[in-house]
Specification:
The chain has a six-stranded mixed beta sheet, with helices on one face. It is an alpha+beta fold. Strand 6 and strand 7 form a beta hairpin. It is built from three helices and twelve strands, in the order E-H-E-H-E-E-E-E-E-H-E-E-E-E-E.
C-alpha cells in the first residue's frame, strides 16, 4: 500500500492562479493507493477523485475548506474531529476513516503554537480506532510528538521550490514501512508530496 500526503494550497500555481484541472492532473500523476490532501475546497476533491478513479471523502475545518482523503479502495467509518485553536487563528480539523482494514487520520495543524495542542487530540482520536493506524498531514512542526505512534524519518518538503522544513509527516502503528520519499516539485501547491510504502496484507473480497 502506497500512501501520500500533499498540501496542495487549493491547487495554486507559482503565478498564484488556482488551477483545478492542473491540480487533478497532478494528483493523477502520483502513483499511490491513498492520497491525503490538505488545503482543498469542498468542490475540488470530487473532481480530483474522478480524474484519479478513486473514492473520496472531505472533512471541513471551516465551511467549504479543509482536508480530503482519496483511496482506490472503499472508504468507511468517516469522522471529522474539530481541533482546539486560539480565538484569532484559523479553525482546524482532522478527518478519520477506515480503508481496507487500516485506520487513517488526515490533518493540517495550526500555526503559532496551536499545533502542540491539536496534535494530541488527533492522536487520541486515532488511537480509538483499530490497528493498524496511519497518521498523515501537514503538522506544521518539525519534531512532532506522536507517541505512541511511530514517526517516520522527517523529510524536507517545504517550501516546494527549495525544501528546508520538515513539517509534513507520516506516523504509523502496527504496520511495517518499506520506504519513505519526497517527490519532485509539482506544478501546484507550496509543499512537495511525501510518499510512504507500507507493507499491508489487504483483505480479500
Amino acid at each position: 500500500m502506497i500512501v501520500t500526503t500533499f498540501n496542495v494550497q487549493r491547487g495554486r500555481r507559482p503565478d498564484r492562479v488556482i488551477d483545478l484541472p492542473l491540480l487533478a492532473a497532478t494528483c493523477t500523476s502520483i502513483e499511490t493507493d491513498v492520497l491525503a490532501l490538505q488545503e482543498v475546497t469542498e468542490d475540488q476533491p470530487p473532481v480530483i477523485a474522478a480524474a484519479c478513479g478513486m473514492h473520496v471523502v472531505f472533512g471541513p475545518a471551516i465551511p467549504g475548506y479543509g482536508n480530503a482523503l482519496l483511496s482506490r479502495a472503499e472508504i468507511t467509518d468517516v469522522e471529522v474531529v474539530d481541533l482546539p485553536f486560539s480565538s484569532r487563528r484559523e479553525p482546524r480539523s482532522a478527518l478519520l476513516a477506515s480503508i481496507d482494514g487500516v485506520s487513517f487520520a488526515v490533518t493540517h495543524l495550526g500555526l503559532h503554537g496551536d499545533a502542540s495542542r491539536q496534535l494530541p487530540v488527533v492522536v487520541a482520536a486515532l488511537l480509538q480506532r483499530a490497528r493498524p493506524r496511519v497518521l498523515l498531514g501537514d503538522l506544521n512542526t518539525e519534531e512532532p510528538d506522536v507517541d505512541p505512534l511511530q514517526l517516520l524519518p522527517p523529510q524536507r518538503t517545504f517550501p516546494a521550490s527549495a525544501p528546508r522544513r520538515r513539517i509534513d509527516h507520516v506516523a504509523v502503528d502496527g504496520i511495517a514501512v518499506t520506504s519513505v520519499g519526497v517527490l519532485d516539485e509539482q506544478p501546484v501547491g507550496d509543499h512537495r508530496p511525501l510518499v510512504v510504502a507500507l507493507e499491508h496484507e489487504q483483505r480479500g473480497e
